[in-house]
Each structure stands twice: as structure tokens, then as C-alpha cells.
Design goal:
536 residues, nine-stranded mixed sheet, seven-stranded antiparallel sheet, 23 strands, elongated
């Protein structure tokens, strides 16, 4: 038998009925069965997976090599066993519940041969709700681990030149229940002469099982923590400290370690929470460089800092409070802003202000923290004012805050809640009336705005403008079901009717319109006629 172009490795454990679609996608590859070897290792399945592998081996004896072994507890051991039997020029790994596009192997092998690439990353998508990072697939191109998107695509579901695998003795650590593919993939990418991305064809379909029984979804906090520790230690031994290592570790801080400190953390028992904090803190101490810290959003950065400080209770409270009430208010101090999470400026915690400093865009959080508390009318002589009390999600130096009436809809750059960051060259809105901070309250500062109204037909939204961390934000005022003041008749020469109301998006809008209509003439008669016909 001639050397196949590619050996596909399939580690199998209880993946029926998904396994059948996986194997069908392999034998149906356009590369042709004469250029293909499939090595499938049944890792002690207790369903019909082993029987299904044997059925395909009987149907395609020149393609399939099937091995049955006792359960090892993860995909690493069966993958290593398959590598011992691989004979192809390239080796490709596929999850036994996933499947390939028909031309996947042919296209990837052709790309590797044409470009002299040692690793080919074919476009991968998720199905049935499976999340797959997509930012790497922006075009057919060569990448390195310095590429900010490659570290977020470290699964072994790639085409590897087998000469590279054997030259460096690349294998999967068998004592890692999850993430065992990352040390293999990272080292292959470090050693590779060239890594290419194939984006113009969907090669791989990653399936989330209906019962969410994929191994990734079943590991507990401490198991995942131990695996991340192993991955980061292995990576540190391969890549010297510096920007290249930071590019890889950004993934582990932003993704794996962040997942350990989410809303399920407070429900863990006290000892597990302590161990998680201890482990995360050790990784922060070892690898969370100033560059990584400054490039990480304040929410994650504070959680890492509290773990590093051993502030388990403050960390638990920070997660619980944010889950239940949203982000804390921002403390404004001149052109700096701080998120006032638990532990902020607490000597017992001892965490530097830089962990709490806001540097990123905070559109959604500001919008969520700004809402109407009350609204009413005030009239002084011929002038009418709308007096609104707003709760703003900021404290401290609120001198930059301005309330204004704005015409028209928010632009497309607004977030779901309607707030937006103004472009740097945008004109600052003119102060509309007076704005005074009343007091600090839970969740921010109570602001009173006294807005003068003009007797002109208009429909205008009330918006708050505030500077946070050097940027200006425009925030529509949410009403949250607050009662609106009764409409007011206003003016003697040209009386108008003015009303405060909630629009369809739950935002405060002030509408003025002429009250007096002509009593005679064709227009008046026509309006009366239309009015009577509507009543009928």
C-alpha cells in the first residue's frame, strides 16, 4: 500500500449517534479513499460506538484501522495510540462527535503542499449552539503565535505535517482531563516553519451534543484550573517572557481563567473557592505582566487582583453583586475613572489602584446605571422648566456631566441600551439648563436637571453626557416605568401642550405641540369631519 497523504485520528468514547455522521464525512472526502487513512481508537465506550467503528472497518478495510482499549479518562491516550499507527504525510485530528466538509482534507493538503506549511488551520464553525472563535478566519493567510487571534484557536483540529510531529516527539499529556490538545498544538505552532489559515471553505463542523455531554462542559473548577496551570507552564518553557508569550497567555487569562471566576464561583464551597483563588493568584503572580494587566478589561482585572491578594470574600461579593445588580458606579477623579468594586482602596486588601482603573469603553455599563428617578414641571413667569432627577452610574467629580435635549434617534453606533461613545472630534453638547449633584446614592449619584423648554413643536429625548476615562458618552435616560407628570398647558399668546412620556424603547422623551387650532375655515371643517367619522 502506498503512503497516504493524510491520517485522520479519531478518539472515540460514547459518541453515538454523532459518530456515524463523523465517519460518513471521512469516507466521503473528495481527496479519495486511496489517499486516506483513518485510525480510530475506541476508549472503552459503553454505547454502540465500538460496534459502529467495526462496521466501518468491515466496509472500508483499506481505510480504517480500529483499536479498542480500556477507558483512559480523556482523549489524550487514544490520540497518542493512534499516532503510533499513523502512516500519512500529514495527520489530522477530529472529535468523534464532529464532522468535516466534503472537500476539507483535499483543500488543506493542497494548501500545505503549495505553501510548504507545517500546520494548516481550516475554517471551523460551531453547530447546535457550539461556540467557535471566528476572528482568525479573515482570509487565506499565514499566521504566527504573535497573531492576536491564533492563540484563541488552539484546539488540535488542524492538519499537522507528521514529520514535524515525530521530529519533536509531540504527544498529548495523558493526565489532563481537559485541554490536553493545547500543549501539543502550542508546541507544534512554536516549532512550525509556517502556519497557514484556510478561510474560504468551511472545513470543520464542531457539534455541541444535545445533552451537553462534551468533556469540556463536564470538568469542575479545580480540574480545569490544574489543566490551565499545566498548559501555561508548558508554554512558558517553550516561549521566553515577552510580547510573544503574552500574546498566547492573553487567551488563558481572558478565557480559561476568567471562566473560573464567573457567576457560578460564589456557589462553590469555601475550600474550593480558596483553592481556586490560590491557583489563579499564583498564575497572576507568574505571568500577568504589566502589558497583560493594562490590556485587560477592569472587570477581569479586578477579579484576578482580588484572587492574587487572597481576598476570597471580596471576590465572592464582587461577582455576586455584579450578577445581581450590574457593574458598580464609576468614581470620577479628573480625567481618571475607577470601578468601585469591593476591595477598592481597602488597606486590608492592598490592591493597587491600577487594577480598578477604567481604560476601556464602558458604554453598556454607563447606560445600565443611568435612569430617571422623577420628573415634574416648574413655571416661572412665562418660562416652563422640566425638572428631572437622574440616577447616574458615576460618583466623585461629576463636573463634566451635562443634560441636554436631543432631536432624533440615536446613531447606529449606539449599544443595545442606546448609549454611545462620542467620536473624539465630536462637538460637546451645550449645557441645557442647570445640573446639580444632590447626593451619592447606591449605584451612583443623584443629579437634578432643570431644563428650560421652548414653545416650538418638537419631540426630543433627554440625554446625559458625561466624561469617563478621557471619553465623552451620550446616554439616553431610561424611565424604568416611572410615573410621568401630567401634561401641561403652557403659553397665552400661542398656547402649547407639553408632555413627558416613555417611548417604545423605555426612554424619557419631552414633546411639545400647539394647543390652539383655528376655529373656522376649510382646514378646521375638514378636521371636524374626520374626527366625527373616526367616532362612528
Amino acid at each position: 500500500m502506498s503512503t497516504p497523504d493524510v491520517t485522520v485520528v479519531v478518539a472515540v468514547y460514547n459518541t453515538m449517534p454523532y459518530l456515524t455522521e463523523c465517519l460518513d464525512s471521512l469516507v466521503g472526502q473528495s481527496i479519495g479513499r486511496e489517499r486516506l487513512q483513518v485510525v480510530a481508537v475506541d476508549d472503552g465506550s459503553t454505547d454502540d460506538s465500538g460496534k459502529e467503528l467495526d462496521r466501518f472497518a468491515q466496509l472500508y478495510p483499506d481505510v480504517f484501522t480500529v483499536v479498542h482499549q480500556p477507558n483512559s479518562g480523556g482523549p489524550a491516550a487514544p490520540s497518542n495510540r493512534a499516532l503510533e499507527l499513523a502512516t500519512g504525510r500529514f495527520v489530522y485530528f477530529i472529535g468523534s462527535d464532529d464532522h468535516l466538509g466534503e472537500e476539507a482534507l483535499e483543500r488543506m493538503v493542497a494548501c500545505a503542499d503549495a505553501n510548504g506549511s507545517d500546520v494548516i488551520i481550516g475554517k471551523m464553525v460551531g453547530t447546535n449552539g457550539r461556540y467557535v472563535h471566528q476572528k482568525l478566519y479573515t482570509g487565506n493567510r499565514d499566521v504566527t503565535l504573535d497573531d492576536s487571534e491564533l492563540p484563541f484557536t488552539l484546539a488540535n483540529t488542524k492538519l499537522f505535517r507528521r514529520e514535524l510531529v515525530e521530529k519533536y516527539g509531540l504527544r498529548f499529556p495523558e493526565d489532563m482531563p481537559v485541554g490536553s490538545d493545547q500543549p501539543f498544538t502550542i508546541e507544534a505552532c512554536v516549532r512550525a516553519r509556517k502556519i497557514s489559515v484556510l478561510s474560504d471553505y468551511t472545513c470543520y463542523y464542531a457539534v455541541k451534543r444535545g445533552d451537553a455531554s462534551n468533556i469540556t462542559y463536564r470538568a469542575n473548577h479545580l480540574a480545569r484550573l490544574r489543566c490551565v496551570q499545566r498548559i501555561m507552564e508548558h508554554t512558558a518553557a517553550l516561549i521566553p517572557a515577552g510580547p510573544r508569550r503574552d500574546a498566547v497567555f492573553k487567551r488563558h487569562f481572558d478565557w480559561e481563567l476568567t471562566k473560573l471566576l464567573q457567576k457560578d464561583f460564589p456557589a462553590l464551597d469555601a475550600d474550593t473557592r480558596r483553592q481556586v483563588c490560590q491557583g489563579v493568584g499564583a498564575l497572576v503572580d507568574a505571568y500577568f505582566t504589566d502589558g497583560l494587566r493594562d490590556g485587560t478589561g477592569v472587570k477581569r482585572r479586578v477579579r484576578f487582583g482580588l484572587a492574587r491578594s487572597g481576598a476570597v470574600e471580596e471576590l465572592t461579593r464582587a461577582i455576586t453583586e455584579e450578577t445581581e445588580h450590574g457593574a458598580p458606579p464609576f468614581l470620577l477623579e479628573g480625567d481618571r475613572a475607577f470601578a468601585t468594586y469591593p476591595g477598592f482602596r481597602d488597606p486590608a486588601v492592598g490592591l493597587d489602584d491600577r487594577y480598578y482603573e477604567v481604560r476601556e469603553t464602558v458604554v453598556g455599563r454607563l447606560s445600565a446605571g443611568t435612569r430617571l428617578e422623577s420628573a415634574d414641571w416648574e413655571q416661572h413667569g412665562t418660562e416652563l422648566f422640566c425638572v428631572v432627577k437622574l440616577r447616574a452610574g458615576v460618583t466623585g467629580d461629576t463636573s463634566s456631566a451635562v443634560v441636554a435635549l436631543a432631536q432624533g434617534a440615536m446613531p447606529q453606533s449606539a449599544d443595545k441600551a442606546g448609549a454611545r461613545k462620542l467620536p473624539a472630534d465630536a462637538a460637546r453638547p451645550q449645557r441645557c439648563g442647570t445640573l446639580t449633584p444632590d447626593a451619592a446614592v447606591d449605584g451612583g449619584t443623584l443629579l437634578t436637571a432643570r431644563i428650560p423648554l421652548a414653545a416650538t413643536r418638537s419631540k426630543r429625548g433627554v440625554r446625559l453626557y458625561v466624561d469617563v476615562a478621557g471619553s465623552t458618552y451620550e446616554i439616553p435616560v431610561r424611565t424604568d416605568g416611572q410615573p410621568m407628570p401630567l401634561a401641561r398647558r403652557w403659553g397665552s399668546d400661542e398656547p402649547h401642550r407639553v408632555a413627558a412620556s416613555t417611548n417604545s424603547k423605555g426612554r424619557l422623551v419631552i414633546t411639545t405641540a400647539p394647543l390652539r387650532e383655528p376655529k373656522s375655515g376649510v382646514g378646521a371643517r375638514l378636521r371636524r369631519t374626520l374626527s366625527r367619522s373616526k367616532r362612528k
